[in-house]
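>> Question from a student workshop board

For tomorrow's exercise we were told to take the sequence and the ligand below, predict the bound structure, and bring the output to class. My setup keeps failing. Could a helper post the expected result so I can at least see what it should look like? The ligand is 3,4-dihydroxybenzoic acid.
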Amino acid sequence: MARITASVYTSHVPAIGAALDLGKTQEPYWQPLFAGYEFSKRWMKENRPDVVFLVYNDHATAFSLDIIPTFAIGTAASYEPADEGWGPRPVPRVVGHPELAAHIAQSVIQDDFDLTIVNRMDVDHGLTVPLSLMCGQPDAWPCPVIPFAVNVVQYPVPSGRRCFHLGRAIRKAIESYDDDLKVQIWGTGGMSHQLQGPRAGLINAEWDKRFLDRLIEDPAGLADVPHIDYVREAGSEGIELVMWLIARGAMSDRAPRLRHRFYHVPASNTAVGHLILENT
Ligand code: DHB
Ligand code: FE
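>> Workshop helper replied:
Here is what the output should look like for this input. Compare the format with yours to find the bug.
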C-alpha cells in the first residue's frame, strides 16, 4: 500500500526562484532565507519519497479567467516550467505519475470532491519554487510530482474547512493505492502578503506564527477560520495559506513529529514560512 510519510509547507515567492537562477543566494538580502532551507535539502536527500503530491496555486499561467477550476489534479506524464513573462525558469521539466494521479482522482471524486482533471498544463513559480527550495538545482527532480492546483486567485475561493476535509480524502485515496509507494504531500503558498491596493506590502508576523503553531497542534480548529479572516489579517494573497490545510488534512490523526520550522521576513513582498512534519 502507498502511504504518506511526511508533509512539507513552504511559501513560493517568485523572486526566490530568480535569486537561485541568477546565483544570488549568498547576497546579504537572500542568505538568511536560503540558510533556512539547508536542513530541508539534507532532509529531502535522506528521506527521498517515491512521489510528491504538490498542492499549489497557478497564477493565471495554466488557467485564466476563461476557466477557473477550484481544485485541479494533474494526470499528465510531464509538465513544462511555464514562461511567466521572463522566459521559463531554467529548471528540469516535472515528471508526473499518471497512474497514482488517476487513482486519486477516482477515489476523491467518488468521495464527493469534484476535481478537474488536467491532462496538459505548464507549471509556474507556485510549483517550481517549492521544488527548488527543497531540492536545490539538480539536473532532474528527484521523483515524480503530482501537481494539484487550487484556485486562491479569483473569488470565490474554497474554505479552509473544505481544504482540510479534501486532504483527508486524498489520504484515503493514497492509502488505497496498491503499490508500496512513499508519498510526501506539500502545501505551498503564503504566508501573509498583499501585492495590490492600499494595503500592498502588508505582513502580519504575529498572525503567521500563530498559524504555524495551530497548523502543527490544532489543524481541525484552524480549518474553521473563515476566508475573510485570512484576507483581513494576512492580506489578499495570504489566502494562499488555505492550501496548507490540504496537506495537513492528509496527515495521520496522530500528532506529527516536527522536523523543521522556519520563518523569515522579508522575501520580496512576502513573509516566508516553512515546516516539515513527519507522520509517526
Ligand atoms: C510575490 C508573492 C507571490 O505569492 C506571488 O505569487 C507573486 C509575487 C511577491 O512577494 O513578490
Ligand atoms: Fe503566489
